[in-house]
Amino acid sequence: MDPSLVLTLICLIFIIGLYLCHTAYKKIIVRPEFEDEAMQILNEKWQIKRDNSLTKEELLIKRLLIEKRADQLVETALKANSEGKHKKTKLADLFQK
């Protein structure tokens, strides 16, 4: 096969994969009352990135704790979404504010 054709196919597959991931991310929905907690988690994540006084171990522990809180929030929100008792908003909208 022609090398340029192979490269074109690889790039096309990569672009399609990115599009599918982006589309799946935008379809995740959460309850509006979780917005404050989601924003707090994001703020803590940015504060940790800017804090130069932490050791590598402390930084790793704080990152893991924040990721665990974020996972729990998403699980709770998805469970609430499956119950269908709220107005749906896109998770992507939360992170664009």
Portion of residues in beta strands equals under 5%
Structural class, by secondary structure, is mainly alpha
Provide the helix percentage. over 70%
SS field, number of helical segments = 4
What is the strand arrangement across the widest sheet? 1-2
Main sheet record: 2 strands, antiparallel
Q: Indicate the low-confidence ranges by residue numbers.
A: none
The helix/strand order is HEHHEH
Query: What do the pLDDT scores average to?
Result: 73
Rg over CA atoms, rounded to whole Å, is 19 Å
Tally of strands? 2
Q: Assign an overall shape.
A: flat
Task: Report how far apart the termini are.
Answer: 47 Å
Transmembrane segments: 6-25
Keywords: Membrane, Transmembrane, Transmembrane helix
Verbal overview:
- This protein is mainly α and 97 residues long.
- The chain has a domain at 30-96.
- It has helices at 3-26, 35-50, 56-83, 91-96; strands spanning 29-30, 89-90.
- It has a two-stranded antiparallel sheet.
- The model has no long low-confidence stretch (mean pLDDT 73).
Secondary structure elements and pairings:
Blueprint: H1 3-26, E1 29-30, H2 35-50, H3 56-83, E2 89-90, H4 91-96
The gist of it:
This protein is mainly alpha-helical. 76% of the residues lie in helices and 4% in strands. It has a domain at 30-96.
Looking at this protein, list some descriptive labels:
mainly alpha; two-stranded antiparallel ribbon; membrane; transmembrane helix; single chain; 97 residues; flat; 4 helices; 2 strands
